Structures are given as C-alpha cells and as structure tokens.
Amino acid sequence: MERYVCIHGHFYQPPRENPWLEAIEIQDSAYPYHDWNERVNAECYAPNSAARKLDAESRILDIVSNYAKMSFNFGPTLLSWMEKNKPEIYQAILESDRQGIQWRSGHGNAIAQAYNHLIMPLANTRDKRTQVIWGIRDFEHRFKRFPEGMWLPETAVDIEALEILAESGIKFTILAPRQASLTRKIGTGRWKDVSDSMVDPTRPYLCRLPSGRAINIFFYDGPISQAIAFHDLLKRGEEFAHRLLSGFSDSMDWPQILHVATDGETYGHHYRFGDMALAYALNYMETNGMARLASYGEYLEKHPPTHEVQIFENSSWSCIHGIERWRSDCGCNSGGHSGWNQAWRKPLREAFDWLRDRLSSIYETLARQYLKDPWKARDDYIYVTLDRSENSVKGFLIEHSLRNLSIEDRVNVLKLLEMQRHAMLMYTSCGWFFDELSGIETVQVMQYAGRAIQLSDDLYKDGLEDAFKMRLSIAKSNIPEYENGAKIFEKFVKPAMIDLKKVAAHYALSSLFEEYIDDTTIYSYCVKREDYQKIEAGTAKLAVGKVSVSSNITGESELTSFCVMHFGGHALNGGVRTFIGPEAYQSMKEEIIATFEKGAFADIVRLMDAHFGTHSYSLINLFKDQQRNILNFLISKTLEEFEDIYRRMYENNRILMGFLQDIGMPVKKAFYSAAEFILNIDIKKAFQDEVIDVERVQNIIIEMKKWKVPLDSVEIEFMVRGRVKKLMDNLYQNPSDINLLFDIQKMLELIKSLPIEINYWQSQNVYYKIVKASYRDFLFKSRQGDENAKIWVATFKYLGEMLFFNISSVLPAD
Fold first, then answer.
1. Omega of the bond prior to 32 within 30 degrees of 0, cis?
2. Which DSSP letter does residue 63 get?
3. 417 membership: H or E segment, kind and range
4. What b/e readout covers 221-232, taking b as 16+ CB neighbours within 10 angstroms?
5. Over the stretch 221-269, which tens digit does the pLDDT of each residue have?
6. To 10 degrees, the CA torsion angle through 19, 22, 23, 25?
C-alpha cells in the first residue's frame, strides 16, 4: 500500500509596517539586519529557497528548493513585504509552487491563509468573510491559480469559519489533532470519541456543515509536529526522516498520509540549519523509495475521505484552553515573567471590539453616500491594495461608485476603505499572544487602531479617541511605569501618528542634508517641490520652501510652506504650515533669509514661531531611518575626533605596550581599549577600500592577535559577506573576466586568516548559478586547448573548494 509524506510549513510574520508609512522602520533588536523581516528572511525564507545537501564533510553536494517538496502557506502581508524587498526569494517561492504542480499531479504546494492572521472565531461574520476573500484573492494574484486549501490562523476554528471556507470554494484546511471531537466511517451511524488527540491523522476527514456544505479536514500528527517544533529533531536529517516514517503503521490497510505542521520558521530561524535537515530528510525519503512526497491536494484527489468528523469549536493549536489566549488570562504565555499576568487581554479585546463596531457604523453611514454596496466594495478593495496604480484605483471606483466622484469624494472613499483595512489589521493575533501589554506586537495593533481612528476623525469628528482610551485604561500593564493601555497609547501610538504636515517637515529637515529632486517619494507619500532655497553660513544651514504633499494611499494632498534651520550639532528647528498665499509666503521667506544673512540666528526661532505657530518640528520628528542617517552624519565628526585621540594613544604607546607584555607586567586596560578601537576601525576601512590591500589586512590581524583584542565580528562579517557577494555578482555578469576571478581568489584566501566564520550562503548561490550558466562553456574551451579557459576552470574549481562545495558532485566531470 502506497505511503505519503506531507510536511507543512506555516510561514508568517506579523505585519511590522508603520501604518502611516506602509513600510518597516529600522529595528535595532534585529541587528545587523535592518528589521526582523530582513533577519528571519536571511535565516529561514531565503535558505529554504536554496537549501544545501551536504556530504559527510559538510561540503555542498547540491542546492535545492525545500518549498518545491513541501506544503506551505505564506501570510499575505509577509509576501507583500517580500515582493517589494526580497523579489528573488519571492519569485523562488512562486516558482516552487509551479514545480509542485508539475510533480504532484497538477496540485501545487501552496495553500492560502486568512488574510492578516486574526483569530477567526473571535471575528464577526463580516470580517471573517472579508478575511477569506482577501486571502483567496491575494493568493490568486500571486500564484495565478485558485487555492485548494486555506490555513486558519493559529488553526483557530468554529463552524461559521468552516462554512465561509466551503462557501468560498476552499476544499480543505489543516487542524491540530486535539481539535477533533468525534469521527465515524461515512455511511455508518455510530460516532467514535476521539477527543484528547486520539484522532487518526493518517487520513483526511469530511466535515458536514449545517448549511449542507462540507469541507475536508486534515489533522496533523501531533507528537511528531511537537518534536520538530520544540525538541531537537532537526539536528540530523536522517533521524528526522526516520521519525517521520515512524508515524506509519503496518496494521493499516489504506494509503496512509503522514503529515506534520509547524511554523515554517522552525526550519532555519528557530533552529539554525533546520532548512538543511529538512532538505536531507526529504531527499532521503524520496531517493530511498520510503514514501511519496505529496501535497494535500494531490492526496485528496487520489484518496477522498472515507470518514467524517465533528470538531471542537473555538479551539486552536497554540492554546490548550481553546481560544482564550486571545481574550483572557488563561495561563498561556511565553514564560520568563513569573509575576506577570495577562488580565489585560480581555479589556484590550473589548476596547477593540467597541472600536470595530463604531467604525463599522461610521463606514456604513458615510460609504452609502458614495458606494453601491459598501461591504462588497470592502471585499473588492483587496485589488487596490495589490495594485495602487491610477488605473487600478480608477477602475475600482468606476465599478463601485454610485456616481462620478469629485476629487474630494474620491479621497473620502479611499479613507473609508483604509479605515476598514486598519480596523482588520488591528486584530492581528500577535497583539494578544505574548505576555505584556506594552510589547511591540501589542503596540503595533494599537497603532493600527490609532490609524483607523485618525481616518475616522478626518471624516466624522466623532471623538472616538478619548472613548477608546477610556476603555484601554482598564487594561493594566505589568510594568508600573506604563500603567495601562491608555498611557501606552499616549506614549507609543500618538507620537507615531503622521499627517501631511509631518511629511513636509520630514522633507524639509532632511533636505538640509540630502539633495532631493523636484518630485520625490517618501515612503507612501509624494512630495512635489514648487519653491526651495537653501543657504549656509559656517556650520549653520537654512532652507525655506513650498511643497505639495500627497498620499499615494488615499490621494489626499496639501500645499505647505516651511522654514527649517540647522544651528550646528544636533540642533534642528523648523516650522510647517498650510500655504496661505504667495504674498504671505514671499514675505516670510524674505524676512527669515535677511535675518539669517545678518547672523541673527536666535531671532530666526522667534520668526518661525510667529510665522508657523505651534507647527514646529525638530530632529525627533524625522522618520526613524532618515533620523538615524542624519544622526550618524552629525556625530561622524565627533567620532573622527575620538579616532584621532585613540590613534595617537595607541601608536604612541604601542612599543611601550610590547615592552610591558615582554617583561610580564600587566598592560593597562586603557591601552587595550585604544588598540581594540583603532584596529577594528582599520580593518573595517580596509574592507571598504575599492582595492583591498591584502598585506595591510594581514598586518592588522597580526596586531589583533598580538594584543588579544576581539574583532567586531558581527559588523565585519556582515561587511565581508556583502563584499564577496558583490564580487560574485560581478563575475556572474562577466564570467570571462579572469582578473575578477583572481580578485575573488585573493579575497577568499584573505578571509581564511580572519578569526570569524563568514556566511557564504549568497555567494554560494551565485557560484552555483555560474556553474549552471557558464561552466560548461569554459570546460569545453579548455578541452579544445584554450589556455585561458584552462586557467579559468582550474581557478573556478579552487573558488568552489573555498566556498565549501563538493566539486566532484557539483561540477560536470572533466
């Protein structure tokens, strides 16, 4: 009897975008990466697109896509980020589904997910339906086919959610074994109690619904999934494979499917090299004929369910209390804070439910003035979020509007729909999952709520914020200084709120340090310069201008005037206001410029107060990434002064340090600190040079070893990794450049002397691409007696050895 194995990965990251900028700002905790999406991508999503199969000496035998041989779902908001920021990995994921269709009887590996990972049983009917519709349409947009299955966030389920899935054409979903209540063979009358995870996971089940519809359910193997997620099963690929195969039983006389489900991040992010263990296990089972690797859709077509099931409603895979983790202090938490409680979850959800209902009422009341069917329009709004081009927005409005809309009407409609989008984003499950009300995940969902309130206030002036904060105040933080949800909202959400004047302020302040073109995009805003003048006097800078700022999301715009000044150091001040006319603007501009040219800088602050009132801004108002760049620029001169002092200290005392070391006298810590600071700066500069001085780098390393000072391994590894990748990319574009080949050889030989381990993952991928694209041509030429080709082939092989390839397996035989 044929046996099937299906490994499912639920790949998901909570949306981290600033709700006003529609982009993720820098997150220092993810260092050396820009943010956590970047980091998890590097540790998991990318490696699984090009996983290594290794020999006994850890050399690369082959590079394969795990996605092509497993089942997976990606959160739509994660794929949206990936499409913009990691297009190569994004395309690899889409391609793996196309490969799966070819290999798995026409069934792809990918399934959809309810859109933004809200807990479906806790959502109202309207939101459940939109979540499913958006999940399906997002999937269709990306994978170019209808999804057979859909992942329910946290596998949280109720009958209504299953009804909506079935009504929408979804054939199956995946649940945890403890979510099954009763089973029986189809056509028989007696139900069997399978509570406490006693359901047989080796077959699919039909779940009949009150409407007369039905949906298929796969219950994953609980013990093996737990072992993958929480134990050390991914240490060795062969052990992983045998543990999977142990789930089969010789006593069963039907085609069994052994399937597991975990967070996809298990394979690489939670467990380093988990991607390689997965690649090995998949290959081991397939090449040894131990089981057929299948997708859920393929198995279901070949082996329809013979049994039916009833489920436990309001259940999930990550809370033994059902769905209480997202609405009460049930005891489920991430641990580490024994004195904390999660009593805040209940009032937080109640506050959000209140806000959702108020926003729904406002939306319905106002949208009916413009739209034929406001809720149908919301369901279709996913098409706009996927394509915000003018043609897309125009087509959407033509289809759904009651009449031709004015520019103001159009802005109002888009604001209403954005209000609804954020009213769903604010329910992202991570906001309740962890331990503390002030955690970044909970602050993130509060920011979505804040954006929804701001949009509502633009249209309705209903005073929602105060009433919302009153309800938030009932939610108590475990950290005394934060007190409650209202205080957290004031501390973390209010300062993050952005309007068009704040965008203009960011443009104005940053323009003192960066040259902008006339039409500039700043995140999700467009800034059009209509007038601008910048003047300098010593370290002081002044800029006065007029710009039009518009949102690429809602289309709202505002013409503003500004004046900003850099007094030196980190002292920046500025004012922004709505443009009130050319005469007032020209008068302000001439007065402030004249005052600046007299050197009366203190008077300029008074003038800005007079012309711009309370709309004053400073360095703190810059968006985080640009703020960081400007601060780095401002402190660079100070750091140069530090460097001069430390360099003199080190170079003037290096001989003395050696003498003290020779006679066995302890060297003062200050000397070591100077050596560490200077030598790390020098090695960073050496690797930033256009042409690397190998001898200089080697001498620096000798000095570091002599004084036993540590290398700034994280930053330097990141820098060196990028340098090698750039060289390899150049070689891919110009494979016949033998001098470039020699440069890479020198670089890799030099890196061997560094006391750090370099992650060559990206460079190895490029090498592998060159093998597929160019190696055979050079090999053929070398066989024809071409001396340059012979040198190229020999050098390329040597590079492969230094990049840890098993050359005899990867390269075609000579």
1. yes
2. E
3. helix 407-425
4. bbebbebbbeee
5. 999 999 999 998 999 999 999 999 999 998 888 999 999 999 999 999 9
6. -30
